[in-house]
# Entry
Amino acid sequence: MAISDGIGTTIAIGPSTASDDASTITALTPYVDIAKVETIPEFGPSAATITFTGLDGKVIKRKGARDAGDIVVTFANVPGDAGQEAMIAAEASKLKYAFKITAADEPDEDGTPSTFYLIGLVNTNKVNVGQSNAVNKRSFSILLDDVHEVPAEPGP
# Structure
């Protein structure tokens, strides 16, 4: 499979959900695209590191609790965009929401792209009016509880 870049990648917000079951999350509708995404940082689970230092001078390491992480997604500020309005409403809520990131990495013309389904809380809604010769931006932090990946597949 060839490498890909971020051009064409989209992010969408889905409905609020209490589920973290992969089949439930992938079947949720509707997902509303969020306009003018600039940056989607790295995301995915990682385990905490547990260490024990014995008097013998050796450090023993173990994997601890897993954390899906947090991300801050940046957009051009587009007043009236349905996706950004949904994110603003989600930030004002205490509910968890589903998100869908669709990469532009189809292996061939008939293939399907990698799709990542995330569950999380929208924790911040910040506007950056920037400076001269810069686009006004809006960023949202999402506290992730779970990430489900559906890998890209070649067409028939």
The two ends are 15 Å apart (CA to CA). The beta strands are 10-16, 32-33, 37-39, 46-53, 59-67, 70-76, 97-102, 115-128, 137-150. The mean pLDDT is 95. The CA atoms of residues 17 and 92 lie 15 Å apart.
